[in-house]
Records
---
Amino acid sequence: MAKSSVLGYPRIGQNREWKKALEAFWAGKLDESTFQSQLQELRLNHLRKQQEKGIDFIAVNDFSYYDHVLDTATMFGVIPSRFPYEGGVVPLSLYYGIARGTKDATASEMTKWFNTNYHYIVPELGGTEPVVTENKPLIAYREAKEKLGIEGKPVILGPLTFLKLSKGYKLEETDAWLARFVPLYVQILQELAEEGVQWVQIDEPILVTELGGDDIARLKKIYETFASAVPHLNILLQTYFESVEHYNDIVQLPVQGIGLDFVHGLAGNLKSIQESGFPADKFLGAGIIDGRGIWKADLREKLGLLEVLSKIVAEDRLLVQTSCSLLHVPVTVKNETKLLPELKDALAFADEKLDEIALLTKAVVDGADSISDALARCDKELLGLKQSSERNRKDVQQTVATISAQHPERSRSFADRHIAQQDKWQLPIFPTTTIGSFPQSAEVRKARQLWRKGDWTPEQYASFIRDQIDIWIKLQEEIGLDVLVHGEFERTDMVEFFGEKLAGFAFTLFGWVQSYGSRCVKPPIIFGDVAFEEAMTVEETKYAQSKTERPVKGMLTGPITIMNWSFVREDITREQIAYQLAYALRQEVEALEQAGIGMIQVDEPAVREGLPLKAEDQAAYLAWAVKAFRMTTCTVQETTQIHTHMCYCEFHDMIDSIEAMDADVISIETSRSHGELIHSFEQNTYELGIGLGVYDIHSPRVPQVEEMTGMIDRALRVLDPNLFWINPDCGLKTRGLEETVESLRNMVEATQIARGKYSA
């Protein structure tokens, strides 16, 4: 009979217990023993929950102390050479040092996990020789079995994906590195087999990207090696996030099961399986419940899909499962007491998705009538949201349709605007600025809580925010920055803040998901038509500008980032949602300009992460993403300087699209990737204003002047000094006061050195 399966569960806990434990440990408030004990209890609770809901194949080793890619790297002793390491099990101090940096060594690069908002730590090869330091899947399996009696399904990141996500090796060295890693995987698998493990889930999401024939040959060799080494161990080769490339080659690999995404990869995977069939001797992991979205599944539609698949795959070889790990969704809907009833009824977070998996599995085994009540309830709940007035605002729909049919562009070219802006602002060579936010201390967070709970009046809170602005305007002037910001002390999150002020959004109380490390975000839900209601940022920005003679940037989050960092409705296209957001934000840009703000930053850090994984879909996405940005910014005067910011992504393949956004100044992360982005500009000209971040704000270490000077010098070998800005990588919200001031002082000192060198 069909079985239920889950690919992974959220790490963070219903009340972010995971985050709190990590940060307490880092702060020295928890000793390692207590820390380990707290995380074990959380981990067991997650397994217990899946056990109680009747999931047949429960993933183990999906829990992480920071990031599962970093876990894989440290399991194999892949330690960057700049970190002292003498072999053996990697201690937590080193593990977290690689992720966060130390006073003596920079953190490893962090980038997006495929096209999600989760960040992973990029493994760096070429340091220590790989070796198995500990068998983490085996440890997780034993724990689940001994503590809860669960016959777990260990999860391992596959060798081809792990290598493809790593850095520090040349393409021609691929086979040599696989020759190092594959025997280590064999050792892990053999130890699991000896323990009596029945199924192992090997994640190879790289298989949904475009691979060449050499990689398919490598894949075949890898899994033939596994089959020979562990002939009695069942391997579920798991893919997700899109349809697989080279379907016919992949399904013939010597594994016992293939996991396919029938949500985000539905069209391609369904076409492949219908046209080419599926091996009778393999299990199909049918990922039909969305592991990335928060909407309740249409159970009738999913049953229809399962019926189609059941005609191709025998029922006793069908696994009903999530499309990917539930890492990307919040834990549970049950505590959300402030949502509109029609919205709450249409939501499914991780725990509710477990219920959906169990229901659909029961329907496959016992027939649809066995869940008739659940089907009827689902029909009613989905219809309630569809008929919501929030989803049927004809005024918004018609206006946006008209505006989006036009070609948005500034009134004059960048070259002309640059002259006018230089004449207006009279900035020195290499203007210095920051990305927008300054440290949000415990005092700031407490003030916000007091206001939200009603203990403070809006006037008290506004006065507090003005006091913070006063402090940081003065600090910025003392540090010597040229273009200032107000600090964003009134903002909890760069997306949530705007969503709370726009129509069409809803907000959860506990809908947290992991972004990177202990950083958790609570994505807004775009469930209706988006519309501007009133000015959102003018008051604070205008106040800050009144406190200084230097320019203060207005700070907005762009339409694509708001969309990509939200959970969005599924009844209209993402392009339509982007245009609704763009029109609403355009009205805010115009309000700032009318209030006398002549520099406006519209941040788009998430443009790259929304790029489709399939090459044939990327051009269309970039076209409407660029159009949405230009819709937001195109109506300002030529002297109004539009800034934007992007971070922690690889941009080498979209430099043309970045330039097409036509921002006067763009700031892009480059320090954590150790300046590698500069190589893109060595091969591509860029003729607009640009600031390459000269230090990593995600690390608590204070960068030295010499480090930033070196970054500046390299950048200026390929970029026009007259268009170059100097700034940190990203916002400074999560940093402390002293380290922020010291880092910015060093940045200004590095700038002064550069001015002396390049102004001569």
---
Amino acid sequence: MKYIYLIFLGIIAINKIKCHVTDRSKQSDGATTTLPEENETRNMMAKELSEKKLESPKKVQDGETSVYLDDVLFALKNQNWTAEEEPCFNHINRLLHGLQNFTLWAVWDWDSQASEPQGLLFGNRYQLGNFDQCMNAPWSKTHPELKTKYCLAEIVLERTDKAVRRRVDKPYYPYQSALDFIEHRPPHTRPLNELTWGACVPAACAPRTVERLLAVMLARSHLGAAGMRANISISEPCQSGDDEMEYDALFYAFFIVMGSITVIALICTYLNCQQKELDPNSRRTGFIQSFCIKENALDLLRMKKEGIEVFYGIRFFTICLIVLDHQIGISNSGPISDGMTSDQEVQTPLGLLILHDDLFVDTFFLLSGFLTITNIARFKRLPNPLFIILKRYVRLVVAFAVVIFYVCAVYPYTGTGPLWHKAVSHETEQCRKNWWLNLLMLHNYIDTENICIVVSWYIPCDFHFFVVTVLIYCVYRSLPKLGLVLAALVTAAALVLPGIVNYIYDLSAVQLFTFEFIIDPRASKEFHVSYIKSHTRYAAYLVGFYSGYLFVTYSNNGNLNRIRQKWAVLGTCTALTLMLVVMVVGSTFLWRSYYPLEGALYAALNRPAWACGVALLVLCCSFGHVPLVKSFLSWYPWVPLSRLSYGLYLTHTLLITRGVFITRNPQHNDYFEILNSTAGVIFWGCVMALLLWLLAEAPANKLLALCLKRRIKKIMTNRETNQATLSVNTSTSTMPTGSGHLNDNLPDTIHFTSKI
């Protein structure tokens, strides 16, 4: 009987629960499924009572969230507010009350920012919130009183307990104070007490008021539990949805100039094709042929078989490695969620292959020196060196000028985001200020703290090396003994100066790509004193010049098979080993004890040693047969890609910087994704380089060659007239020595490719 009674009570309870659930579901159905007349009535009521809803005293809940908001509101009310700050405080007060009531506009604004920092101990510096939600509220135009703006605050946390800093034997001991862990910073790692916080605040708030609001919020977060003091500053202008960048005259000028050049190129291409149809054997050169897109594209595809075809593959793969390294570095300096892991990987075998990757640029210096001698050694009698230098200058500066023009005029308009303005505005300002230094090839010596396009330091170095080398070679051809003395002095200086500069200024042995450097290269002492200076980077170029002279000397008879295969393979293995040792040994200076003399010696010899390895590889492949290596590096598809490498070098950092700093949230530092991004940068960089070649580089080179030929023909005509009038031999008249031979030696298109 007892059990029957319990069963009866259970059945009654279940029926009551079912009835309650049924009633709730019916109420829910009635609330969500309404007739059109009911919707219209409800909308009218909502419109009439909208203001009341905004200020409704009813609270959704009285839990921990309400206590937190009351605490924040209490702290703000007990601060001294000036008359100018009153509108901001009133809006924040209304925001917090609306948030307690779960009003849409208030929840929208608060939801668009991080209430407290997250992941800071793992190296997540950037707390960006939701930038787009803050900037694009649906009611921003219909309700101007609810407008917001997005501000970036730089915060440095400092401990206030005045505790004596203890030696950290176990930095990851879980029971130590978190203050000790935050304060502990091993060398070459990012600080854990610094963060960048994005705040969505009322449009009426001044930066000082935003700093006070963030200080209150931070004090009530888990980071404020230990009483850490926060130094907060907002140095960058806040962004709002109404801020639209106006296109200035420079922006329109860029598109007018480049559009005009494009139209000219298309017209010239059409006219040249028509002329070819009428006269297929026509080989005349002129303005139309210079701008013909088809002719300039064919120039990219021509493979010069001179025994050094491996240069095509070496050049392209070197620029690919440089792009990969810059992708890793710039990504690591941007918003990533696992910065501590990235810092730890610096001392892994992978880090040893990345830290000293600036040696790849010395590969280009070697190739440039090698090709310089192989080009000018063909002249039986040297032309005027000023003509050669002018051609080299035009070869380098035309594409460079277009990229600078783009950075100054268009680049700031190509992206948005919480970090975009901060990352790009400085670059644009420096280019608008110092563009003329770049065009004069002086920006690696003058005002280097404001250098336009950081990676462009390579260009003046290459030009300076070319000028000095050509002048010394001209002296050598005229006065061999004096030329040899000058070459010996310059070579000795190129080897010794890097070590002397390193020792005098107490610099590190090499410029390692650590976090301190990649976060702001312009702030690095080594960058300004040693890394970008021509007199400290000349040795690799000279190694290329001398190895090229050996190649020219022993290949004049056309017989390149001078080394047996086994010795060629052995030499190639030796070259690769030497290059690997130089790179790895340089990276070890990150963690081992440093001795000034040892550092100076390595600084003096590491770059020429690397260049010797590359030169040995080239000579072994040129004078012998190295299976797989030679055939792969000489593969025909590398020909056009290698010729686009200079344009890729100029443009790749623009693409990488845009990809990193338009991000809205920290990214995981995944190396497969980095490889994927690098492939995209290489592809689009090659597309941009192709446009630079077709519309700027190739036409400028051909027009210069055309002008020089006409100038020389005019000079030669005047000389023949003088000879007929005066009946004297004027073969050494006013024209500089050897200028007359330029007419026969100067090609229709410029083939000086001794650059990237």
---
Amino acid sequence: MSNHPLLTGGRGERHLLLSNEAIVRGALEAGVSLVSCYPGTPSSEVPDTFRKLGSDRYVLEYSVNEKVAFEVAAGAALAGGMALVTMKHVGLNVAADPLFTAAYSGMPGGLVLLSADDPGCHASQNEQDNRHYARAASLPCFEPASAAEAKEMTREAFRMARELQQPVMLRTTTRVNHMRGPVEFGELAAERPRTPFERNPGRFVAVPATARVRHRALVAAMKKAQELAESSRFTTEHGDPSVRVGIVVSGVSRNYLADALATGGWTGRVRVLELGMTWPLPEKKLGAFLSSCDRVLVLEEGDPLLESGVRELAQRLRCAVRIEGKDELLTVQGEYSTTLLLRRLAQYLDCPCPTLTSAAPAEEGLPNRPPNLCAGCSHRAVYYAVRQVFGDDAYYSNDIGCYTLGVLPPLRAADFLVCMGSSISTGSGFARISGKPVVAFIGDSTFFHSGMTGLANALFNKHDLMVVILDNGTTAMTGHQPNPGMAQEVLGDDALHLDIESVVRGLGVTQFARVKAFNLKGVMAALEELKDKKGVRVLLAEEPCALYARRQFKKGTTQVAEVREQGPDAQRCLETLACPAFYRDGDRLAVDESLCSGCMVCLQVAPKAFKARKRG
């Protein structure tokens, strides 16, 4: 067993933790039995930390997608164990089907859902606010604002989930997941006694007659949850009770508000009601606050859900209070900040706005540095080959993963992208209506996530589509987590390797080729062979992620590329391959040895311009 402090630390110890690590400790203190997940930023460090700990206190599963992960956790909670399921916000869209039914039937053992939202789209395709799901599915919801609260609220969420026998949501955001702070440990519990499963089809078999009865039970459970919200220790009020100017705040905005009030010297001018448990609302406590204020400002990132609840409550209670919230400053877009709240509070309190000075002012005129495929990334080689064969005659349907970065010039290997696992399905529909050739790209982990169903559909409906599966042997973008396509020696005894070719052929694909991604000649020959055929064609391009190979297999390289002849060939390679290891030394093209992975794709693109030499 690991000697990690998360497993060995005793009551009263204080450790500096990432909030995602604090969530792990909270689950361990609660006595979690099973953890399931599909990795996704900003939630990935939670299951990754459980994996690193390698303890026999719990079972950890990297599921093939979020729906399956939720269903595995639901099964564990039905069997009486405490279960934690983790995913990023868009993953809950995939898991929504079992989520709603699980809330109806209830989970006797205790099920906690970590939904990690991403305001500002740091690593996501949208900014959806999953507090909507808490309301729609009737889930009690906690929103931590610090690492310490992340630990405490995780533990409380499990306690409430077991008491109510209902799923509970722990809703975080990127800033909270990735902040560090001091965390005081509680008692590290042994696994909680399991709740024996009692056969009861009238509760657990979701047919219409059952659902109607269980809906009433869910309403009753949420009424109990509201009573618990009234006494929640995560709801705090501070400020002079005689002050009639109030602020209601939730989530990470609590931190920004504290900084803004301190910076402006306004602490004594307002009363603040901070909500840590944000659904169901503590209506009695909130109503008393509203009744004692003339004006209230509601602060929350994302959609105006708390604001709407406050307005509705004030109307029902007939409170003569002026409520303010979203406006031209506090929009539904992006993240809040201390500076933003300073500006809004200055307006609210009719005060001059202090100026925050930056210790390191940004330099003007610096070039932007967008995310890019790594030097030595096999996806770059495949994209180059596809562009050489198909050019602009084809349309490119892309998917979610690091290979999405192929959208950048000069590769330009993405014309549209909808969601995870969508490339084959949307590509099919696009090809059918447009009559144009379509190449759909999908990664290995994404293929197992939800690409297999799209491929089955394409075959069943006789679509005309070229599919390129980019197999780099890992779930690269989120941190090299396991997936069914990983090598068996890496997976060990805990999981079974699934061969992508066998899966593809088993679904019924007959027009298939398997190539090594760095073999440009072989890739282009396979593409040319499949290009003019009709129906569903699949090219499987394999090569380990360069970073993963270096880390997992200690696979380095003894050689690097070097420019031996300046001229048109070297310039063409720069402009069409655009490897990040290339740089300009005056008017000359050069290769940065520290970045070069030794893949030697540039030698195949422009053999006259480049040569290989020993590293160092």
